[in-house]
Amino acid sequence: MWNALGAYRSSIILLLALILGGVLGFGLPDFALSLKPIGQIFLNLLFMIIVPLVAISVMSSIARMTDLKKLGAILVSIMVVSILMAIIPAVGITLLALSFDPAQGVTLDLAESVENTGASMDFVSLLTTNDFVGLLSKSNILALIIMSVIAGIAIGQSGEDGRKVADLLDSLNTVIMKIISLLMTIAPIGLGAYFAATMASQDTELVITFARAVGLYLVATVVYLTLGSSIYAWLGGGWLGVKRFWACMLEPAITALGTSSSLATLPVTIRCAAKMQLNEQIAEISLPLLVNLNKGGAAMITALKIVFIYSLLGLDFNVDIFMLTILISVLSAFIIGGVPGGAFLGEIFIVTTLGLPLEVIPILVVLGAITDAASTVVNVVHDLNATQIIQRINGRHYAKPESIENH
């Protein structure tokens, strides 16, 4: 059985460590508090690598994408469709979570007071810094991502010199991946210890809030996969597109559930695109890119995490925070989802961008680990929907002469 659950092994180990940490926190609070330095060391190690991780990974991926600029309209449509398919679920689950608060009045009791980050938002400071040194701070991750995207575009458009830089970035990215891999081996110990210290002073009702949040996400996922997928399929191919989608989507959905990986499911997704009679050229161009860019499931859980943690901390979720939640969710889906170690990077991105206390990171990790399988299914299934829509937009430019009359 353990071999059958191989794809989820790391998530299961992490969840077990967090559960053990929670039990220690509730049962032996004094001992749990003594474990906090262990967790702090692990988080500090992550913080030390986050700036080069974001900069190198984002620049590298963007530089490779701009090599495809000759594809023109199809590449633009892939990016636009991916962004829209991240915004829609993020907005939907944010409104749902605000209407049915999963925290239900339970408040997270932290040693340090939490400032009401919703009082005002300085978007200029969030999006930019006034010097280069500011980009080297984990507190300015959003500005770093923006500059890394710009740098990646510049590298991709710099000809031979740009290719040399892109090759160097790929090599550096390999090293960064290895560093992250090494750090993740101690993640269960570090996060388990930190979670134990966080839970030491909390009410046991906090555990119930996790169940509510996960239940809300699963309900939203089922609705989005049924209703949302049907609408996307109709937009991409009318009622025939809906029929073909539902006839073929089960295989990639089950594969995604079994592997917990969009990339591992890609061969199955490509085969299903052929069964749906999608244009071969468009599918072969779109699907490998959509694996990294189109992550509506990741956008959904990111948005839910933010609403959930704001409710637990008793912070005001105003219009500024709503807009920032959607922005963070889209970036998590569109960029961070393709970065090695992106799962932990997403939690850090939320905390540093919104100025939240570090104690909430294990809570966010718990939600992410439990909902990972459902998120992956959404990501994979909607890659097929996105390909349908992209074909609808660009199909006539890629249609075979004898099939033009069918479009």
UniProtKB/TrEMBL annotation:
<dbReference type="InterPro" id="IPR036458">
    <property type="entry name" value="Na:dicarbo_symporter_sf"/>
</dbReference>
<feature type="transmembrane region" description="Helical">
    <location>
        <begin position="216"/>
        <end position="235"/>
    </location>
</feature>
<dbReference type="GO" id="GO:0005886">
    <property type="term" value="C:plasma membrane"/>
</dbReference>
<keyword id="KW-0813">Transport</keyword>
<feature type="transmembrane region" description="Helical">
    <location>
        <begin position="132"/>
        <end position="155"/>
    </location>
</feature>
<feature type="transmembrane region" description="Helical">
    <location>
        <begin position="41"/>
        <end position="62"/>
    </location>
</feature>
<feature type="transmembrane region" description="Helical">
    <location>
        <begin position="175"/>
        <end position="196"/>
    </location>
</feature>
<dbReference type="InterPro" id="IPR001991">
    <property type="entry name" value="Na-dicarboxylate_symporter"/>
</dbReference>
<feature type="transmembrane region" description="Helical">
    <location>
        <begin position="321"/>
        <end position="341"/>
    </location>
</feature>
<feature type="transmembrane region" description="Helical">
    <location>
        <begin position="296"/>
        <end position="315"/>
    </location>
</feature>
<dbReference type="Pfam" id="PF00375">
    <property type="entry name" value="SDF"/>
</dbReference>
<keyword id="KW-0472">Membrane</keyword>
<keyword id="KW-1003">Cell membrane</keyword>
<dbReference type="GO" id="GO:0006835">
    <property type="term" value="P:dicarboxylic acid transport"/>
</dbReference>
<feature type="transmembrane region" description="Helical">
    <location>
        <begin position="348"/>
        <end position="370"/>
    </location>
</feature>
<keyword id="KW-1133">Transmembrane helix</keyword>
<keyword id="KW-0812">Transmembrane</keyword>
<dbReference type="GO" id="GO:0015293">
    <property type="term" value="F:symporter activity"/>
</dbReference>
<protein>
    <submittedName>
        <fullName>Dicarboxylate/amino acid:cation symporter</fullName>
    </submittedName>
</protein>
<feature type="transmembrane region" description="Helical">
    <location>
        <begin position="74"/>
        <end position="100"/>
    </location>
</feature>
